[in-house]
Design brief:
Elements lengths: L3 E16 L1 H5 L6 E2 L4 E3 L2 E14 L7 H15 L3 E4 L1 H6 L11 H9 L6 E5 L8 H9 L8 E5 L3 H15 L2 E5 L8 E3 L6 H12 L4 E2 L2
Parallel strand pairs: 1-4, 1-5, 6-7, 6-9, 7-8
Antiparallel strand pairs: 2-4, 2-10, 3-4
């Protein structure tokens, strides 16, 4: 049976690099295919990477339509299933650089790298976000048969009650409230606490080998 493969295009930051006029003019954007792939529930995740210079030069350097055109060109060449913008890149494009959930396929790959155990801590977002319970159930289903105890940190009370009922009814798992994650021997899912861990994960993937340039 042929393994399913999805693709994710990551627009990261090229640290201490300056984007001068010639950077905007050298189409197409540089795209790299990572050697290492992520594990997702039904196959593999292929990472592609576009390095965006950290610093900009010239009076028109912060005109984000130039960056938008460059990144759109990369999207059209790769046709990824999902993409992810570094928070700095998102700010360059006019966003606030915060509050974006990673694509589900990326969260699956991040979870597959975690140490597994019989206990699980789930750190939920402080504000209610649409579809969080469905996303969690999808992400955790492969791991739940070996989990005995779940602790939930943060989140709305209604979301906690929904998850408590589901995990107990479907898997017989005891669910508790907690103030903070356990310090050791616990599998922690904390994908909604900010983007630091997501960016760190993706940067590690691309640094492990993005030396295959896409033509």
């Amino acid at each position: 049976m042929e393994e399913n493969e999805k693709s994710l295009l990551y627009f990261g930051i090229q640290e201490k690099a300056s984007a001068k006029k010639r950077w905007w003019q050298k189409y197409p954007a540089e795209i790299y295919r990572c050697q290492r792939k992520g594990r997702i529930q039904d196959g593999r995740l292929q990472y592609f990477y576009v390095p965006v210079p950290e610093f900009y030069c010239g009076k028109r350097a912060w005109k984000n339509e130039k960056l938008t055109a460059c990144l759109q060109d990369a999207m059209e060449r790769v046709h990824p299933d999902d993409f992810y913008l570094h928070p700095t890149v998102r700010r360059m494009l006019g966003g606030d650089g915060q509050g974006e959930l990673p694509p589900v396929s990326l969260m699956e790959a991040m979870l597959s790298e975690c140490k597994k155990s019989e206990s699980l801590d789930i750190c939920l977002p402080g504000e209610q976000q649409t579809g969080v319970s469905d996303i969690l159930i999808h992400l955790l289903t492969p791991y739940l048969p070996r989990v005995n105890v779940i602790s939930i940190i943060g989140g709305e009370e209604s979301l906690y009650e929904e998850l408590e009922e589901y995990f107990y009814d479907e898997y017989g798992i005891v669910v508790n409230r907690a103030n903070k994650p356990a310090k050791k021997d616990t599998f922690v899912i904390n994908l909604w606490s900010g983007e630091g861990e997501t960016v760190k994960f993706l940067d590690t993937m691309v640094k492990n080998g993005y030396n295959t340039k896409v033509n």
